[in-house]
Structure formats: C-alpha cells, structure tokens
C-alpha cells in the first residue's frame, strides 16, 4: 500500500445542492471504503457546476468543465455515480460522458491515451430496474477513453419498482451493497496501484 492514490467521485444526481442525494450517499460510502486502502478522494456533484454541452475539452465562456477536467486527470480512480431514470442513466451523466469524449484525442509524452493508467468504478441507485444496463454503458464509454475496470467494479442498489423509498431513506446499508462496495474499492485500489507502479506499455 506504499503508492499514494487519489479518487474523484462524480455524482450525476439531478438534484442541486443542498438537496439530499442517494447518488452522493453511495459515492461517499465508496470513498470511505477506498480510504481503507490508502486512497484519498473527494466527491463532486456535477449538477452544481455549469457544464456546457459539447464534446470539447473547453467549450468557452461560462464552461465549468475545464476545472472539473483537471480533477479527473489528477485522480487515479474515477467513481462515476448516477441515479436510474426510466431505466437509463441520468441526463447529467450523459453530459459528463459527452465531455469526457474529448479525452480520446489526448495523449501523454509516450503517445498513449492520457487516461490509460487510471481506473473507473460505477455506482448506480434507483427504485427501478436498469443497473446492469447502465453499468454496461458506463464501462464501455469509460473504457473507450482509456480507463480500466476492476473485477466486480460496480455497486448498485435497486429499490422496489414504482415505490418511493430511495437509497438515502434506508435505515442501514443492505449487506449485499456493503459487500459490493468493499469489493469494488479493494479491487479498484489494487488495480490502480499496479498501474501507477507499472503502467501499460507504449508498444
């Protein structure tokens, strides 16, 4: 555990602060689990920032993405969090994915995609089905731009369909969610540390 690591959790809830958010809660729990493996991190609520539509690294005046992008680049682990709406990831999550598209053209000094040695895990909440579908979309998108996904790298909670109980309303964390959180954090920290010490080859 000698190599220090950092994590950035991006919560794609539709609710601006200070409203309570199930996505934020799960994100904080994942960050806490990562801290047990020597990973420091912070959570950012994307909707609190003026992220302009587009697929460029900087969309000009008023665009808050460049500052968030710096945090993305600085973190060894990205924790991508989204609620489930109509079986899909949130519109905020889609906006973040679209802005990350710009990383496809960014390379390091060795000519590799700039995010090659970084790790991504996903957190998904909702009181309807869709978690597996959303994880597949997130992981394919994040892998395309260079992120590696650890074994069992998603954590999700699906409440009872068409009911109003959210993850944040639960009296305690379900055992299966806690187990998934611990596994995802442990594997993400392990993989990120391996890549930090010995990244992907250049040829």
Please, could you describe this protein's structure?
- Strands 1, 2, 3, 4, 5 and 6 form a 6-stranded mixed sheet that branches.
- This protein has a single domain, classed as Flavodoxin domain (Rossmann fold), CATH 3.40.50.
- The longest helix is centred in the C-terminal third of the chain and has 23 residues.
- The chain has 5 helices and 6 strands; from the N terminus they run E-H-E-H-E-E-H-E-H-E-H.
- Helix 1 crosses helix 5.
- The relative contact order is 0.18.
Any chance you could write out the topology, listing elements then pairs?
Layout: E1 5-11, H1 22-35, E2 39-45, H2 65-74, E3 77-85, E4 88-89, H3 91-100, E5 119-126, H4 131-144, E6 154-158, H5 175-197
Parallel strand pairs: 1-2, 1-3, 3-5, 5-6
Antiparallel strand pairs: 3-4
Helix pairs in contact: 1-5
Features:
203 residues; Flavoprotein-like_sf; oxidoreductase activity; NADPH-dependent FMN reductase; 5 helices; alpha/beta; Rossmann fold; single chain; six-stranded mixed beta sheet; FMN_Rdtase-like_dom
Quick rundown:
GO terms for molecular function: oxidoreductase activity. The chain has 203 residues and is an alpha/beta fold.
Strand element count: 6
Q: So how many helices?
A: 5
Provide the residue-averaged pLDDT: 95
* Cα gyration radius (Å): 16 Å
Poorly predicted runs are: none
- Percent strand equals 15-25%
Described by the principal axes of the CA atoms, the overall outline is globular
GO molecular function: oxidoreductase activity
Protein name: NADPH-dependent FMN reductase
Domain NADPH-dependent FMN reductase-like: 8-157
Organism: Microbacterium foliorum
């Amino acid at each position: 555990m000698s190599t220090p690591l950092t994590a950035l959790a991006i919560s794609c809830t539709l609710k601006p602060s200070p409203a309570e958010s199930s996505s934020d809660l799960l994100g904080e729990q994942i960050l806490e689990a990562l801290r047990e493996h020597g990973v420091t991190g912070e959570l950012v609520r994307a909707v609190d920032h003026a992220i302009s539509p587009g697929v460029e690294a900087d969309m000009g005046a008023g665009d808050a993405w460049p500052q968030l992008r710096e945090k993305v680049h600085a973190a060894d682990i990205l924790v991508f969090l989204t609620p489930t709406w109509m079986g899909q990831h949130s519109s905020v999550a889609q906006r973040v994915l679209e802005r990350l598209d710009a990383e496809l053209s960014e390379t390091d000094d060795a000519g590799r995609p700039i995010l090659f040695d970084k790790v991504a895990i996903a957190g998904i909440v909702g009181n309807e089905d869709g978690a597996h579908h959303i994880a597949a979309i997130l992981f394919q998108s994040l892998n395309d731009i260079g992120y590696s996904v650890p074994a069992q790298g998603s954590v999700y909670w699906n409440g009872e369909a068409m009911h109003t109980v959210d993850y944040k309303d639960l009296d305690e964390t379900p055992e299966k969610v806690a187990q998934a959180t611990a596994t995802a954090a442990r594997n993400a920290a392990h993989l990120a540390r391996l890549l930090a010490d010995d990244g992907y080859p250049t040829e």
